Amino acid sequence: MNKNSKVLALKYRPQTFNDLIGQDIVAETILNSIKMNKIPNAFLFTGIRGVGKTTIARIVAKLLNCKNDPKNLCNEESCKNCH
Question: What structural domains and CATH numbers belong to the chain?
Fold first, then answer.
């Protein structure tokens, strides 16, 4: 098997909130809390398999570990922690 081959679900996994489909309210709520610097102690993501819980958690982790100002979130290649 080729070393560069990936499972399609991982290859095409959304990397930013802009890439998410069908999670507009969740993305907007989390982004607003980060931008306003009112981040809760925990997020609880629930739902059936395949709705995007892990993907959203990974995006939130990237944003919270970002070195840029929360009001000026990273774009494609701005910081090593995000991309």
Answer: 1-83 (3.40.50.300)
The 3-state secondary structure of the chain, one letter per residue: CCCCCCCHHHHCCCCCHHHCCCCHHHHHHHHHHHHCCCCCCCCCCCCCCCCCHHHHHHHHHHHHCCCCCCCCCCCCCCCCCCC
38 with 28: CB under 8 angstroms?
no
Among candidate residues 41, 39, 26, 46, the one with its CA nearest the CA of residue 66 = 39
Q: What's the predicted TM-score (pTM) here?
A: 0.78
Q: Give the tens place of pLDDT for each residue, 33-55.
A: 988 889 999 999 999 998 999 99
